[in-house]
Structure formats: structure tokens, C-alpha cells
Amino acid sequence: MSRLCAGRGPSRAPLYWILFSCLIVASSSVALRAQTKPAGDDPLGGVSAAATTNDSGVAGIVPYAKGFNASLATSSQHDASSGWSSLFTPNVAYRLNRYLSADASIPIYAYVNVYTNVGTAAKPVYSYLSKNGAVGDTSLNVHGDVNFWTIDYDGTISLGLPSGNTAYGLGAGQATFNVNNHFEKAFDFFTPDIELGYGDSSSLVNQAIRKDYVAVGPQAHFQAGATFDLPFNMSFEAEAYEELPLATDLVYSTTGKGKKKKTTATNIGPAEDNGFTTNLDIPIQRHITLSGFYSRSLRDHDDVAGFSLTFLLKAPPKE
User: Of 38, 95, 224, 285, whose CB has the highest number of CB atoms within 10 Å?
Assistant: First the structure.
């Protein structure tokens, strides 16, 4: 399939600079706070729990205290379009201080159905084939945490490396990026939040749920919802989301249904998506968390549901 480079629409620059300005403001506040109070005075950092923002995993993947952490998530999920898949997601993370942290992960598909050409280029014949050991795009994330008058903010800059196979619909085929701004306010038992961001790959948004397509091109994304604290340290999260392409986009897909492998020059193309997601985290013990998740795409009429186990080398502190 031919590849089309994403175009630069007239609306890209203003939105990019707005979000970039948000990160500059947050970074300046971090620098001022770091000068007035040493990081060692408060060993627990990441007030807004960087690893849980942008839905990249359970709490504790990025350590709360300065230092290194590693985790392994194993998950099975069912997509109404492409069927069952199972994958492993190793992650390494490091917290520099209470404000700055970074992590890296790569999805490895133990099993996945892909919609691929089993014929020739002249006479294509598309059919589902199961693939084992396929990988997706590598994700590198840098987080900045800060508190503004009891409102927690997490700014995340993500970089995607093209390690995924575009023929299988598992990669973007190029280096990609995403800038995400997450705001939340904690109350007694629930924490409402809102996110807005900008990037050029859908795979860097909501990284915990793997959809059957990767959309490439300038796009904005929005999310709003809340996390609810439940007994026995369990938590439930419900979010509504919107992913909006801003210019030319290209979609790589694992399935012949729903999302198509094609390009469009408008902002109402195949990359647009909206719906809601829910997630329930159940700590089995301090180092192991069982999660169940469900995502409903209202635009594509597609459902993704599954469960995962996350193993943490360094557990989060007891509450």
C-alpha cells in the first residue's frame, strides 16, 4: 500500500502552540518550585500519578519516589471487528524528582488476527491470518507533574518509534509524537479529570487499549471523566473521548471492517473517533493488579473489551 505523508493544515499551528505554551508554563512552575524546595524533602512525587494519565497503565508503573521501576502487563482483549488478541507490554520507568519522570514501553502481540493480502499485487485476495510475536510501535514518554492551587496537572510528551508492522496494521510507519495535558481535582472518593492534546498518531492516545487501526496525521484529542475510589483499594474510571483529525490522515488497519486503509483530505475522515471507555483496577496484592476494561466507539460502532494483569517490580506506597 502506498504511503501518504500527513499534510499540514492551517489549523495545526495555532493548536500546537497553545498546547506547547501550556507545557512551557508548567515547566516554568516546576523550575520555580524546585528552587524553593528540595525534592528530597518530599520523597513521594507524581501527585497526579503520571502513569495513569493518558491511560498508559495502572498506578505505580512510574514510581512515586525517586528511582527506577519496571513492570510487565499481560492482557487479552476482544475486538468486535478483528476478534481476540493477546499481548505483553514490558515497561521501564525512572523518576528524576517529584516533578519529572519518564517511561518506555513496547507492545508485543503473542497472538493477533490481521487482515492481509494472501494473493498477489495484481490479484489481491484479502483474508484473516493469525500472527504470533508481532510488535507494535515503541512509546517513549516524558511526564511533568505539578500542582496549581489544589488542581493537579500532568504534561506528557510522547514519542513513537516505528517498530510496528504497517502491513499488519500495528504501526505508524514513521516516527510520531503526541503532547497531552491532563488536569484533575481530587475530592473525597472521586477525582474528575479533563485532557486535551495534539499529535500525529492515534496509537499514542489511550495506550492501555489497543485498537485495530493506527491513524497517522495531525489530530487533536479530548477526554473528560472521573475516577472513583472503591473499597479494598479498587478504583473505577469512566471517560468520554473525541479524536479529531485536522488535515490529511492515513489509516493502517488489522481488519477489513470499520476503519479502512485509505487517505482523506478532510477532517471527517476515517481517523475520526469518539466514544467512551471504562476501566476497573483490582489490586491482587501490592505488586499485582488485575484490570478489566471496555471501550465503545460510537462513530465506528465497535466494541473492545478485555482484562490484564500488571506485575510491578516496585510497588506503590501503602495508603
Answer: 95
**How many CB atoms lie under 10 A from the CB of residue 21?**
10
**3-state SS, residue 19:** helix
**pTM, to two decimals:** 0.79
Residue 19's φ and ψ, nearest 5 degrees, are -70, -40
**How many whole angstroms separate alpha carbon 276 and alpha carbon 131?**
29
Give mean pLDDT, residues 174-184. Answer: 95
How far is Cα 130 from Cα 180, in angstroms, rounded to an integer? 34
Residue 319 lies in a domain: no
DSSP 8-class letter at 172? -
CATH code for the domain of 265: 2.40.160.40
- Asked whether residue 168 is domain-assigned, the answer is yes
Residue 268 lies in a domain: yes
Helices (H), 170-213: none
Identify the three-state secondary structure at position 109. Answer: strand
Exposure string over 197-230, b if 16+ CB within 10 A, otherwise e: bbbbbbbbbbbbbbbbbbbbbbbbbebebbbeee
Q: What is the pLDDT of residues 270-297, one digit of tens each?
A: 678 999 999 999 999 999 999 999 999 9
Which residue range(s) make up the domain with 255?
Answer: 12-312
